[in-house]
Write a structure and sequence with these properties.
It is built from twelve helices and 15 strands. The protein is 42% helix and 16% strand. Helix 2 links the parallel strand 3 and strand 4. Bound molecules: (3R)-3-hydroxy-L-norvaline (VAH). (3R)-3-hydroxy-L-norvaline binds next to loops.
């Protein structure tokens, strides 16, 4: 790999050379077929060109799901294969979404350790090897029952009691270790996402998934059975804000980031508050509550609201969508998609 020396005496990899030459970065997104990957790819492809943003996942992309650019089947737990993709595709930035979420992780602990921790080790070591820029999301799930639950700050008690949360605390700490290590100096960036609401993509295996599924059930059947108590208040965000914030953080000059792991917040709501807002569009909606003890215990261990003032200070983060605007947007998108499918 060609490199040029810098004032620090370290070597800038080909990625920095490309960046300095004004060429767009080549970006690999792992776990790309999940709730966020295709929307992020669409946003980055509009900025950097379709062919410079490669979606990947450990399963084949059904026709049309990988959007307007390239897709590579890739298992993040296979270091040699992932190494070959990064090298052969000349990757500069890596967005690492591949993970088992909170509820599915509790059902498949060994796989969650293999993917969430082993997969991250591979990604982090390749980031160091090829001098990449790495964005890996964390989550409100990285906090636990002993964390202050209101206006939770970036730096506080983190004793999560799910394998998802434990793996994400490991991601945060190991990523920051590789960043501050004098020989590694890895460009690691991490944002703790709340529950994400999306109208074009579905979440899978999370505790906050109800906030998406209720829209589809309300519109299609006029009723929904919620697995969380009606008063379970959780931090949430609309996907457009999440994608924009992720791109803004990817773009932020490294020396602007005083930290490497930041809370990103928008608004919080309970199932009951969401139901009342959705009934403005589906007045006949009926919701009953059949509590899932596993997901209720997970939700009860998470913050009710986040403080994201450091993200605003360091890279200008600010959410745009509130509950009313999110509900209206989601309803319109899903109605449009249903009409298209007819
Ligand atoms: C989950 N949607 O429910 C994910 C997210 C904040 C929650 O990490 O597991």
């Amino acid at each position: 790999m060609h490199a040029i020396a810098t004032r620090r005496g370290s070597f800038l990899g080909s990625s920095m050379r490309r960046w300095l030459s004004g060429k767009p970065p080549r970006i690999l997104i792992t776990g790309g077929l999940g709730q966020l990957g295709t929307e992020l790819a669409q946003c980055l492809r509009s900025k950097y060109g379709n062919d410079n943003v490669i979606l990947s996942d450990n399963k084949e992309a059904e026709s049309g799901t990988s959007g307007s650019g390239p897709f590579i089947r890739c298992d993040v737990t296979d270091f040699d294969y992932l190494d070959g993709v990064v090298k052969n595709e000349g990757i500069d930035w890596l967005v690492h979404f591949a993970t088992l979420l909170s509820a599915i992780g509790e059902k498949k602990v060994d796989e969650a350790i293999r993917v969430n921790i082993g997969g991250f080790h591979n990604v982090l070591n390749l980031t160091r090897k090829y001098n990449l820029r790495l964005f890996c999301p964390s989550t409100i799930g990285a906090f636990g029952p002993s964390t202050p639950r209101i206006d939770t700050p970036d730096l506080t008690i983190q004793r999560p009691n799910t394998i998802y949360g434990v793996s994400k605390v490991h991601v945060e700490l190991l990523g920051e270790y590789y960043h501050q290590h004098p020989e590694y100096q890895v460009d690691f960036r991490c944002a703790r996402f709340p529950g994400i609401l999306s109208g074009n993509t579905l979440p899978g295996g999370g505790t906050t998934d109800y906030a998406v599924h209720i829209f589809y059930e309300a519109i299609k059947r006029g009723r929904y059975t919620c697995y969380l108590r009606p008063d379970t208040r959780l931090p949430m965000m609309y996907i457009d804000d999440c994608i924009r914030g992720t791109v803004e953080m990817l773009h932020a000059p490294s020396d602007q980031l005083k930290m490497r792991t930041y809370n990103m917040a928008a608004f919080s709501f309970t199932p009951d508050q969401l139901v009342k807002e959705l009934q403005k569009y589906v007045p006949h909606l009926k919701v009953d509550y059949v509590i899932d003890p596993v997901r209720q215990k997970i939700a009860d261990s998470w913050p009710e609201s986040l403080n994201d003032s450091n993200a605003t200070r360091d890279w200008g983060w600010k959410h745009d969508y509130d509950l009313a605007k999110t509900t209206r947007t989601m309803y319109d998108i899903i109605m449009r998609n249903i009409d298209k499918d007819k």
